[in-house]
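Hey all, quick one. A colleague (J.T.) asked me to put the benzoic acid job into the tracker so the inputs and the structure tokens live in one place instead of scattered across chat threads. No bug as far as I know, just bookkeeping. Sequence used:
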Amino acid sequence: MSLRLGDTAPNFKAVTTIGEIDFYEFLGDSWGVLFSHPADYTPVCTTELGRTAQLANEFKKRNVKAIAVSVDSVEDHLGWVKDINETQVTDVDFPIIADKDHKVAELYDMIHPNASATHTVRSVFIISPDKKVRLTLTYPASTGRNFIEIIRVIDSMQLTDSHSVATPADWKPGDDVIVSNAIKTEDATNKFPKGVREVKPYLRYTPDPAS
Ligand code: BEZ
């Protein structure tokens, strides 16, 4: 069964490039980005894992742990990581799950038989520290994902979890945010001392409370 937003992310034990892990123990109190790729030693996947490694400091700043998965072996993963580090000029420091028995792929519905009967598609699950699924994305094998967008969504979720706001289209940190519709305009001005700009009664902006 597919996982939906708000569902509890299933726990699992898996063999990875850093040894056997329990997923929940690996995550601890961090946010998680669990992402699948179709196969090792393939070009798009090489750039994706390289990009994730290049962004390690951005993930760390946000208390996020990345973990990749594919159905290849640990030996393949370890050999391929050397190529990723060389070609993408980086140092892959996150684990890659060797899901040879498809346990994780099936748990997270990462094999879409009409796309490929045997390999995972490009799935992303963002998981908050309470182990809830907060975002799902599915890309085809031929399209590499945008990891800056994944960080942008995490910024939005971390902001909106702690303030009564939502983020508009194409928002990035520092841009104005939208006042939650649960807040009456007369209360909004007290709650948001930086000011509230009302465009319509249902569309009210305030400066980013975190910047
Ligand atoms: C790639 O990563 O380049 C790729 C993997 C599987 C199918 C197509 C492309």
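Adding what we noticed when we looked at it: The longest strand covers residues 64-70. The helical segments are 23-27, 43-54, 56-61, 74-87, 103-107, 147-162, 185-191.
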